[in-house]
Write a structure and sequence with these properties.
Helices cover 38% and strands 17% of the residues. By secondary structure, it is α/β, with parallel strands linked by helices.
Length: 333
């Protein structure tokens, strides 16, 4: 036998030794399930580009939320599929007190009160121009968008949202929404900022689910590059982090996750609040397609992918694999 005093394989030789030496843990505690809601009754409509993900009517949404809660998943992030007839350039449907989204929030909080509900205040589901903000004169009007989102945030808090998550990337939104919530008596409602949301090409299936892509017509920007971050930048993410922390963010997020693991790590090292990462629709769809073709093992690759996001530093992972991962981690199929 060779004289090798350093043999790292000693800590790999059995399953239980590997468990003892494991540096990163993944559990249901780290998972948030994004869900889609739409109008109707008894609707569970699969998103074609996201196999296994559905647009639920409120009644079916409540059933799904209860199932996720039973699996130990701490919360959901809710996104509305709004019909074109309800979309306008000023996104006014977002402010309807009896609209689809507030009704869904109230139903969820009544049926599963302990489940955390994360609400989104971006305008793209309601905006006939398909942008996260109001389009004026061919550009996104930052401050006009803040005014609408502040009303949305208060409406969502009134309806039962536990965490407001502005995903729009407008300047100053965290402080503006914090002030609006506090003034309305919702100081206990937390803010999860999409701190570093990149102008990514991995969002396509999500936009299919909500029909929320920018509309290709005159005076409407063709993409979201003037407000979402340049994929080439990571120092900029730390600048956004400093701004969000100074404005009162309770949690911060990087989106997408896999192409930006380095940004998650940098954010974790610089942040004094929990860091979330969004394992987005394109990342989900790629693995589902490869698994459907027999090229990859879905379970093994999904858990490895989620573990890598945790290893990079994410305390919370929004992922479409949340339900499956919870079942796998519990030893169920």
């Amino acid at each position: 036998m060779h004289d090798l005093p350093l043999r790292p394989r000693r800590l790999r030789r059995s399953k239980n030794i590997r468990r003892l030496a494991r540096e990163t843990r993944l559990s249901t505690d780290h998972l948030i399930a994004p869900l889609f809601v739409k109008a109707g009754t008894n609707v569970q409509e699969e998103v074609s580009s996201m196999p296994g993900q559905y647009r639920f009517s409120v009644d079916r949404l409540v059933d799904e939320a209860a199932a996720l809660n039973a699996l130990g998943i701490p919360g959901i992030a809710l996104f509305p599929a709004v019909p074109d007839a309800r979309k306008t350039p000023d996104a006014r449907a977002a402010l309807a007190p009896d609209g689809l989204y507030p009704r869904a929030l109230r139903a969820l909080k009544e049926a599963v009160p302990e489940l955390l509900i994360i609400s989104d205040t971006a305008l793209d589901p309601y905006n006939s121009d398909g942008h996260d903000g109001i389009v004026h004169g061919g550009v996104i009007d930052n401050d006009a968008t803040l005014d609408v989102m502040a009303e949305m945030a208060v409406l969502h808090a009134e309806a039962g949202a536990d965490i407001i998550a502005p995903s729009d990337m407008m300047d100053g939104r965290v402080g503006y929404l914090r002030a609006a919530l506090d003034d309305a008596g919702y100081a206990d409602v937390a803010l999860l900022s999409y701190t570093a949301k990149y102008a990514s090409s991995f969002y396509g299936p999500f936009r299919d689910a909500l029909d929320s892509a920018p509309r290709h017509r005159a005076h409407v920007p063709r993409d979201k590059a003037t407000y979402q971050m340049d994929p080439a930048n990571s120092d900029e993410a730390l600048r956004e982090l400093r701004l969000d922390l100074n404005e009162g963010a309770d949690l911060v997020m990087v989106k997408p996750a896999l192409p930006y693991l380095d940004v998650i790590r940098r954010m974790k090292e610089a942040s004094d609040v929990p860091v979330a990462a969004y394992n987005v629709s394109g990342e989900y769809a790629m693995l589902k397609a490869a698994a459907a073709n027999g090229w990859l093992d879905e379970r093994a690759c999904a858990l490895e992918m989620l573990l890598s996001i945790r290893r990079a530093g994410a305390d919370v992972i929004l992922t479409y694999f949340a339900k499956s991962a919870a079942q796998w981690l519990a030893g169920r199929e």
